[in-house]
Design a protein that fits this description.
The structure is a homotetramer of 138-residue chains. Chain A is built from 3 helices and 5 strands. The relative contact order of chain A is 0.24. Chain A has one domain: Hotdog Thioesterase (Thiol Ester Dehydrase, Chain A), CATH 3.10.129. In chain A, a hairpin with a 3-residue loop joins strand 3 and strand 4. Chain A has 138 residues and is of the alpha+beta class. A 5-stranded antiparallel beta sheet of chain A has the order 1-3-4-5-2. Strand 2 of chain C pairs antiparallel with strand 2 of chain D, so a sheet runs across the interface.
Chain lengths: 138, 138, 138, 138
């Protein structure tokens, strides 16, 4: 079960550009994963964690190890979206995040996701414990 | 439960180019969804179904409505991958596919996915019954 | 020759995420075109022009008809970039823009581009005159 | 001026999938650069040059240093394209390639490009001489 941290939900705005859409007229389904990673990056940054530093100084990166997405409604060109991190739970090596993508204009839920992130070393990509200060910050 | 069709597994080769990788040195996690859609498109084509014709003639498109991915091992630049459709089950509006991404050189399983595709009309993106001839072909 | 409009340069910030990078450790070369289009979209928005409205109401879209890029220095993961529109000239059907991508931290020029945009109708993609109010706004 | 090598033109087929298109119904303009890089990668491979080996063994990568593109006609979802390398000239550090993207069905020229590739070391991305055996092979 996911804990509700006092700093959550974290919300990051994303605008839909042509690059994000496909010939069906809507945002291409894999792009939601990109949007969700932008939000996770900014959420870590807001907590003081810069991932390029984490990599240089500790040789650690976060990699997506599982993702489950439900597409509820399409997003379209030029729409303003909100990418939300609504819940986080952490174990030794992995974090589970619940993420939502919402249409900013009418608050409709467009996409609901459970994302599992694993902490791995940047060379071998082998599992490593999430640093204690990261756990405390998030 | 997924049925095992006589035409499955369907396998589509994909080469990893720089565009598919990220600064972690591995294929970016959302790209696997792109690779899986290429395989589904070619699987439909192999069955005689051209999606541009399906859209023009019947106003129908297939949209991903759910996706669940497990990332088991990374793929790297220049590797040859095999994208497999190993099982398919269909209902009136949706199809569920089991898809795998495999390293062609050593047959390691890199990514395992369950993808749900919904048949929708191309304008409103409302659910529509999958045409009977599509169900028979797949 | 390009005119220097009083509203220029227009600057739009872009953060480099993993999705933008490749296994060489730097931003993938075609992504700069994506960043430049984001800046053009926001520049038009700042001038009161929403491209989804332009399409719905007038059946017009802007399409890139020429692009010339010089890559001077690489951008890397997590860097903050500034995408600049430094000069614009317009003819009946096309606009020429000079765009720059700059590292926000040290102001280094990373990429210099000349982009030609053509106004086309959204169905046939045939050349059409740029609306007068667009010319006045930009 | 570009030399006409006996091994040219090199042609690589590319199929247009949904991921390549945008809400304008056509291939997104930056994707042509991706397609052209796929063709260059396969052209080097056909000459016996594997870029992952070049990097591991010699610490060298090829980076795009200039690109000039003319978009003549749009490509659409599901179309079969041919990506051509029609001419190559080499200097000590850079290669200039003329590349074309053609609609396979009717041979229409869709995009014409001049691409400059620089040989750089994989760590600092500083210019390095193209290895002699690469020059001989291409």
């Amino acid at each position: 079960m996911l804990d509700q941290s006092p700093t959550l939900p974290f919300v990051w705005p994303v605008r839909v550009y042509y690059e994000d859409t496909d010939a069906g007229g809507v945002v291409y389904h894999s792009r939601y994963l990109n949007f969700m990673e932008r939000a996770r990056t900014e959420w870590l940054r807001a907590a003081g964690i810069e991932q390029d530093q984490l990599r240089k100084q500790q040789g650690l990166i976060f990699a997506v190890s599982k993702a489950a997405l439900e597409y509820r409604a399409p997003a379209r060109f030029n729409e303003q979206l909100l990418v939300e991190i609504s819940a986080v739970s952490a174990r030794r090596v992995t974090m589970n995040l619940q993420q939502k993508i919402i249409n900013a204009a009418d608050q409709r839920l467009l996409c609901l996701a459970e994302i599992q992130i694993a902490c791995v070393d940047s060379r071998q990509l082998r599992p490593r414990a999430i640093p204690q200060y990261v756990l405390e910050l998030v």
